[in-house]
């Protein structure tokens, strides 16, 4: 039987600012839970002129519990935009690739 427990019980990410990254906040597959609170991400300029939609929060552990609270995400116009992916999970990436 495979051990399915993550090596980290949970991750807390709070009070950060990320600017113009392809993925602003990224929780890898070794955590069972993640809390993203009061973070700010803005995507004013594409990284390396990328045409891929920027991702605010990417979660690699499909079964992870994720809490998003009081975060703000801006697109090129300084407000939320439909071209910015708010949260993307590993299974979402697999669907887009196929």
Structure characterization notes:
The protein has one domain. With 98 residues, the protein is mostly beta strands. The chain is built from one helix and nine strands, in the order βββββββββα. The strands form three sheets. Strands 1-4-7 form a three-stranded parallel sheet, with no helix packed on it.
In total, how many domains does the architecture comprise?
Answer: 1
The quaternary state of the protein chains shown equals single chain
User: From the helix content, strand content and strand pairing, which structural class follows?
Assistant: mainly beta
Specify the biggest β-sheet: 3 strands, parallel
Rg, alpha carbons: 14 Å
The helix/strand series, from N terminus to C terminus, equals: EEEEEEEEEH
Counting DSSP H or I runs of 4 or more residues, the number of helices is: 1
The main sheet orders its strands as 1-4-7
Distance between the termini: 29 Å
Low-confidence stretches: none
**What's the count of strands?**
9
- The residue fraction in helices comes out at under 10%
What are the SSEs and their pairings?
Elements: E1 11-14, E2 17-19, E3 23-27, E4 33-37, E5 40-42, E6 55-59, E7 65-69, E8 72-74, E9 85-89, H1 90-97
Parallel strand pairs: 1-4, 2-5, 3-6, 4-7, 5-8, 6-9
């Amino acid at each position: 039987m495979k051990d399915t427990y993550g090596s980290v019980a949970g991750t807390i990410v709070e009070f950060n600012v990320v600017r113009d990254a392809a993925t602003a906040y990224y929780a890898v597959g070794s955590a069972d839970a993640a809390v993203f609170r009061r973070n700010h991400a803005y995507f004013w300029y594409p990284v390396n002129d990328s045409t891929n939609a920027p991702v605010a929060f990417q979660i690699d552990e499909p079964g992870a519990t994720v809490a998003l609270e009081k975060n703000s995400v801006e697109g090129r116009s300084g407000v939320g935009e439909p071209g910015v992916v708010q949260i993307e999970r590993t299974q979402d990436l697999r669907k887009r690739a196929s």
